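for ur thesis appendix - LapA family protein. copy paste whatever u need, i formatted it the way the template wanted (i think)
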Amino acid sequence: MQKFLTALVLIPLGLILVVFAVANRHMVDVSFDPLDPTNPLGHIRLPLFVVIIVTAIIGVILGGIATWFGQRRWRRAARRHQAEAIEAQNQLASLRASIATPAQSEPRRLLLESGSSGAGRDKSRATL
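the 3d part is after this line
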């Protein structure tokens, strides 16, 4: 199913890029010299579709980097919460281990001693 959905997206996208490239084959000058547009210091002649596609790729990469830096706080919080959860699980395991080691009769004896004033009665003081 995933291969089908990938093909459903990639095939039309590829066709659009091919049609775009064929329609925009003419050459353009790319220059980063704003002072002399008629005779730029450094320029390169590329097909228009190459300029547009490379610009889009660079934009996606820069957007991904900006998003990654923007989510730094959430990743840090997730790591901290994961460490706290692991520590809590370790504490729970050690508490369970310490509870399992004493004999089973001792907790019952402690329970009977703590409730000796009302032994045999429930909350409404009725005899059991």
